[in-house]
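Support case: user asked for a sample of complex input and structure output to validate their parser. Sending the pair below.
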Amino acid sequence: MSATKAVINGTEIKVKAGTTILEAARQAGFEVPTLCHHPELTPSGNCRMCVVEVEGSPRLVASCHTPLAQGMVIQTHSDKVLAARKAVVELLLTAHTGPCVNDSRASACELHKLAAELEVGPPRFQVQAPRFYPVENDSPYVRRDMSRCILCRRCVRACREVAKKGILSMAYRGFQSKVVFEADDPLNSEQCKDCGVCIEFCPTSALSKPVEEVA
Ligand code: SF4
């Protein structure tokens, strides 16, 4: 079986050909943070949290979907990389307007955990037109709060790849972007039953189990 040799953070490594940079870094003991990535789902590279510096590359590289190439020299925690990751978190926080720092779902929010780890404070800038959709708690199966959604699409991939249903998709554009069920059907329309896979894969509790609202 062919192998790929590279250097990560000064350590020479050898991994199976086709291994991604992220997998190789983790195998070598270097923890690279991720958000849109989940090991059980097809990598998409859309959030840029997992970027690394590759010698000779003018741009930072998303490690979750980039295969390690022979002879690559990689830095996973350089100043440039850390600055880029902080900027990603700060940008996501600007649109993550839900109250998850104050409620029982705070401990489940991977974005806030990353913000704490990377020492990112409240965003310095505001989005011009914050996305706003009311919280929906009408379904017996799922509660949707788009103010917590970071558009990572993990739920969409999990619905297709794990639950094998393909009910979820992204709809609308820009600040109106929204995770929808079928053709943006109401959540209680019985399109989506109780598999709970999207809830399990959502990193921010934008999708969660229904709760009894306290008046
Ligand atoms: S609902 Fe959750 S999993 Fe789906 S895109 Fe939003 S944050 Fe990601």
